[in-house]
Amino acid sequence: MSDKKALPVTPADVQAAAATIRGAVLATACNQTRTLGEICGCNIWLKFENLQFTASFKERGALNRLQALSADERRCGVIAMSAGNHAQGVAYHARRLGIPATIVMPMGTPMVKIENTRRHGAQVIISGATLEEAGAFVRDHAAAHGMTLIHPYDDPLIIAGQGTIGLEMLAAVPELDTLVVPIGGGGLISGIAIAARALNPALRIVGVQAALYPSMHNAINGGALPMRGDTLAEGIAVKAPGRITTEIIRALVDDIVLVTEPEIERAVAALISIEKTVVEGAGASGLAAVLAHPERFAGRNVGLVLSGGNIDTRLIASVLTRELAREGRLTQLTIDIVDRPGQLAAVSHLLGNAGANIIEVSHQRTFSDLPAKATLLGLVIETRDQTHLDEVMAALAAAGFQARCT
Questions:
Q1: Which residue of 25, 190, 225, 251 has the fewest C-beta atoms within 10 A of its own C-beta?
Q2: CA 230 to CA 404: how far, in whole Å?
Q3: Which residue has the higher pLDDT, 113 or 398?
Q4: Do 87 and 117 meet the contact criterion of CB atoms below 8 Å apart?
Q5: Distance, CA of 290 to CA of 38 (rounded, Å)
Q6: What's the Rg (C-alpha) of the chain?
Q7: Using one digit for the tens of pLDDT, what is the confidence trace for 374-385?
């Protein structure tokens, strides 16, 4: 973290934003999670921005920016590029204020975010393989039609609106000494850092990025880590961080942690199973960082921002099932057996005695290297945990079955 200097957004700007959005945006709960705290070895409070009306913090900045439009700008309408959450925030509050809105979303945006944006009354255009390509289309379209661009992160009014989260967190829990915040373009953590540092200059502020998209990490640390692939945290999959946000983060943020896809999945699953709250990959990245690096947060009072909850139900099912597999509770087995009556019954009896539950059964006689009188028995079984799975595998081996996890 470098020395402070005059920044493009001030604490007074954040306070003004709080007054502007008051009553139109939910002041979400900031509650302690004792179970996750015990798991991570620190005290953890969760800021439930996934419970906003559009299920994301993005409403805050969007409304603050929309309220600053002139009468002429309102008549001409607004345009924004977004992977989903900014889109919904702009669309929802633009409709409330009677402002025409067009949203450009990159290909691959989760359908739940596209449909929700349309439901809020905006015209949706799908263009570009990335958020940056969508942004190029937006700039041309805005110039051609006299529309005002509502940038998702690199705008002082957007940043100030997002910073109201920091005000609410420290008002609710003054003893917080660490904030862990997702970073995409950087608007959220920039606003929070400005607000929080003004209230507590000693506060430690940690940003989190998906390891597949370490754009701000590269910008701050002079790195050249590659950016590629599909991430569960598509909401923070930004290749080009903002100019304004980079300046603020360089001045006020202490560290940026990168988290892997399995770590993000684990955090999403933990929030569902423990907190009974649905959070998208980007929103769970803060918890992912604490779960993956507990030594960095040991004994501290940590505030996590659950920035959004817009995730496809199909993806939730996949994440939860994959987590069951990692925990040894759901396993696919392949067993070599003699192809004669009674073998499946013998395996089933053994698994039943061992306390395992059979979920799926299949036979493969054709596509294998086994002798013609043998077959591959495919099973999906449910066990209590990894220790129980090890016991089941040992029981199969003791009975003479060649079983392997696949």
A1: 225
A2: 30
A3: 398
A4: yes
A5: 12
A6: 25
A7: 888 999 999 999
